[in-house]
Amino acid sequence: MMELADAAAGYHKIIERQMAAAMADNGGREPDPWLVMLPQIGKPQEIHLTADDLVAFVRSRRFDYLTKILQLFSQYNSMIYGVEGAAIGVRH
Hints:
Strand content: under 5%
Number of helices: 4
Distance between the termini: 35 Å
Number of domains: 1
Low-confidence stretches: none
Shape: elongated
Number of strands: 0
Largest sheet: none
Mean pLDDT: 80
């Protein structure tokens, strides 16, 4: 969970900085994110849960948490490819 939180926060901070710089250059108006997002150097690794990671949730029988966690990891892994695709599209 910590790896997921750190990775997502890193993306958020990068995009937040890019938006702030673009707003400063645009008279304080917020531009569309796709116009100001810069390509990221390198591509982050996907984050996956292992069976050992899931033991606590299965033992607690909180399957609703397990479902939400699996969804979060899936959304993060999809997002990294979306950001990569958006950056490639902007460059070409």
